[in-house]
Amino acid sequence: MKIEEVKSTAKTQRISAHSHIKGLGLDDGGTAIQMAAGLVGQESAREAAGIVVDMIKSKKMAGRACLLAGPPGTGKTAIALAIAQELGNKVPFCPMVGSEVYSSEIKKTEVLMENFRRAIGLRIKETKEVYEGEVTELTPVETENPMGGYGKTVSHVIIGLKTAKGTKQLKLDPSIYESLQKEKVETGDVIYIEANSGAVKRQGRSDTFATEFDLEAEEYVPLPKGDVHKKKEVIQDVTLHDLDVANARPQGGQDILSMMGQLMKPKKTEITDKLRKEINKVVNKYIDQGIAELVPGVLFIDEVHMLDIETFTYLHRALESAIAPIVIFATNRGRCVIRGTEDIISPHGIPLDLLDRLLIIRTLPYSRVEMEQILRLRAQTEGIQIDEAALSMVGEIGTRTTLRYAVQLLTPSALTAKVNGRSVIAKEDIQEVGELFLDAKSSAKILSQHKDKYMK
């Protein structure tokens, strides 16, 4: 009999450029720790981002904008992602690139507005009446089938629920009995039933049965406190874009045209301004009544110099509207022509009147020591072993070329080391790979030296 090796079922996640970032890496006083949470150096930029996070959390930042400006490869996107990590998953974070607005089937301003609405969350609090407890009895009461014949139908179901405070017997509709069967509810389970919708949710097995031997890993939950019949607060998180889409989709009837409409591939439809205004009215009413609260999120626009003059003008209005998220721009351009104009030169390719409204956070090039720390971090993230001599050599390559190029050399070097029969990257592997792959500066140098051999 042959026994094969059983492989683990754990999924291997692909590692992206910023997989190692877990947060801004600040201490309790808001000071940046030199190397923490996956970020290295850039202390002043990280501290500024920390203040932005505090402002977002205290809801004092809505409708304002920041600009992360610095040379390529200085960690602008990394800081924006760290801000998203700090805010947690309940605050909406919508990343986009400047060139995304140039779509063939949808207006530029529409793309921007859609992303603006994606970055604004709405937390809706609902109070529902529920019956909650451990099932002590579950008896369907059958009667003769009114249609005649031999079969019997369930007329109602008697269910006994027990909590820490008391017990209650309920007489429920037969449709709820079907839901109970779907959820595979049996005596000893903890369930809750919504009074107005009749929805049944099985929460798990009561922990008084935790000692019984069970082959299936069952989740045991404690006996609910309070009365069987109680009011429970349910919180739902949606974005304004979700509301727009839900209300924009036409609900078709049963005729052939609506069937055809459902079969056809749905194109991106524009949501009208009128619809958005109606939704804003309803949202504002909910906020006034205290049913819902706004959670302004973050819209991150990378490569903001790709936007053109019309889009920038639209951004002014969008930033000043009553319901606006926090907008973080990022760019690596110096003084350049504003897209959509021919002769207006402006810092970062952004019109001066918009620059005037921005809090600008600068990112600076990394020193050699910082580069080595980042490379060590990346090697750990990618599961690569590298010795100190090789690491300092990659750091030196990074200062001479760019950090991105140095990071990209790690994986090919690991493969070269493997071919050479080593598990740790050595200096000669880096040298070998460095000769095989050119960086941008060396490539440009070759082009200028041999320009007569290339086509113009």
From TrEMBL:
Origin: domain of life: Eukaryota
Q: Which UniProt keywords apply?
A: ATP-binding, Cell cycle, Cell division, Chromatin regulator, DNA damage, DNA recombination, DNA repair, Helicase, Hydrolase, Nucleotide-binding, Nucleus, Transcription, Transcription regulation
Any one Gene Ontology cellular component term annotated for this protein: histone acetyltransferase complex
Q: What is its main location?
A: nucleus
- The EC category is hydrolase
* Cellular localization per UniProt: Nucleus
Q: Which InterPro entries match?
A: AAA+_ATPase, P-loop_NTPase, RuvB-like, RuvB-like_C, RuvBL1/2_DNA/RNA_bd_dom, TIP49_P-loop
> What are the GO MF terms of this UniProt record?
ATP binding; ATP hydrolysis activity; DNA helicase activity; transcription coregulator activity
Domain (AAA+ ATPase): residue spans on this chain: 62-375
Pfam families, sorted: TIP49, TIP49_C
Q: Which GO terms are recorded in the biological process aspect for this UniProt protein?
A: cell division; DNA recombination; DNA repair; DNA repair-dependent chromatin remodeling; negative regulation of signal transduction; positive regulation of DNA-templated transcription; positive regulation of gene expression; regulation of canonical Wnt signaling pathway
Protein EC: 3.6.4.12
Q: Which reaction does it catalyse?
A: ATP + H2O = ADP + phosphate + H(+)
PANTHER family attached here? RUVB-RELATED REPTIN AND PONTIN
The record's family statement is: Belongs to the RuvB family.
Biological role stated in the UniProt entry: Proposed core component of the chromatin remodeling Ino80 complex which is involved in transcriptional regulation, DNA replication and probably DNA repair.
Specify the protein name: RuvB-like helicase
Q: Which organism is it from?
A: Cryptotermes secundus
- Gene that produces this protein: RUVBL1
